[in-house]
Amino acid sequence: MSAAERDERIQADGKSRGDPRRRYTYNDLLWMRLFLYVKDHLHQGNIPNPARRGAEIVAAIKQITKGTCPASSRLLFVGAQGAYLLDEHGVVIHLGDDRQLAMRTILTDTIFAEVRGRIAVLEASRDIRSLPKAGNGLG
């Protein structure tokens, strides 16, 4: 939303930005906190216009989640343009313009659990020998 559109909405409502009677819901505060988290993360990554880009990312999240604010831990940032949302089913959704194809593999806990389960079945059926634990606890 442009600044002009925002100002028109404010004037139409009859309230100014500094109106002390303005009330925020808990959901409003969650979304503001998520925006600040995204903006700060983009700023630390030296992304140009982090506030504008953060607003675009939060708008995409709002559309995907139908207004339910996700935990910030479900956001993944990869490089300059890669912002992703991990949904409740373990599916990774790109939050940028859909013209960019993400050529990355993002391994989630769901994928690790599935691989561990398949290895356990193969070990139990003696199709493979037991594997020693790796340094990262996987194996």
Summarize the structure.
This protein has helices spanning about 5-15, 25-45, 50-65, 110-125; strands at about 75-80, 80-85, 90-95.
List keywords for this structure.
9% strand; 3-stranded antiparallel beta sheet; 45% helix; mainly alpha
Distance from first to last alpha carbon? 49 Å
Q: Report the radius of gyration as a whole number of Å.
A: 21 Å
> Strand-and-helix sequence, N→C?
HHHEEEH
* Helix-residue proportion: 40-55%
Strand content: 5-15%
Structure report:
The protein has 139 residues and is mainly alpha-helical. It has one domain (3-106). It contains 4 helices and 3 strands, in the order αααβββα. Strands 1-2-3 form a 3-stranded antiparallel sheet, with no helix packed on it. Strand 1 (75-78) and strand 2 form a beta hairpin. It is elongated, with a radius of gyration of 21 Å. The model has no long low-confidence stretch (mean pLDDT 77).
Topology:
Elements: H1 3-13, H2 26-44, H3 50-65, E1 75-78, E2 82-86, E3 92-94, H4 109-124
Antiparallel strand pairs: 1-2, 2-3
Helix pairs in contact: 2-3
